[in-house]
Design brief:
By secondary structure, the protein is mainly β. The protein is 11% helix and 35% strand. The strands form three sheets. It has a four-stranded antiparallel sheet with strand order 1-10-3-8, with no helix packed on it. A four-stranded antiparallel sheet has the order 2-9-4-7, with no helix packed on it. Strands 5-6 form a two-stranded antiparallel sheet. β5 and β6 form a beta hairpin.
Length: 134
């Protein structure tokens, strides 16, 4: 499952499935009944795993990220919806996204030709330069 994908589960009665979720994800039972064991958390010196029983159409928003366990009480369909990316996630995705190729201006494309711009050599203006243009 890629980041940002919605997980669609169809479970038979008694079937159990585990999924890795981010904090803020939602679990929604579309049809049937299911129990969701949330990621474990510490309470004093004890590890506690809360279990929520969900009926049809009931959503559950997970406060913590981690592994959850979805158990079908009866045949059910469950969606696990990841949270919307925050502003910093979107910023870094745009910052490190592969560069998109530059496009030619529309007028040049319509005429079927590409315009090549010549730049002057930086060595042409230096007196006694070691490198000279041919």
């Amino acid at each position: 499952m890629k980041r940002g994908d919605i997980l669609n589960l169809v479970l038979s009665a008694g079937q159990c499935e585990q999924a890795l979720v981010e904090a803020g994800s939602q679990v929604v039972v579309i049809a049937g009944r299911a129990a969701v064991r949330q990621p474990p958390r510490w309470l004093s010196e004890h590890m506690l795993g809360l279990t929520s029983s969900l009926a049809e159409g009931e959503p559950l928003t997970l406060e913590d990220g981690g592994w959850i366990e979805i158990s079908a009480r009866m045949a059910c369909r469950v969606l696990v919806i990841p949270p919307e990316p925050g502003i910093w996630s979107r910023f870094f995705e745009q910052l490190f996204a592969p560069n998109k190729p530059e496009r030619f201006p529309e007028s040049d494309v319509d005429q079927g030709m590409a315009v090549v711009h010549r730049t002057e050599s930086r060595f042409a203006s230096v007196p006694g330069a070691l490198f000279k243009e041919p």
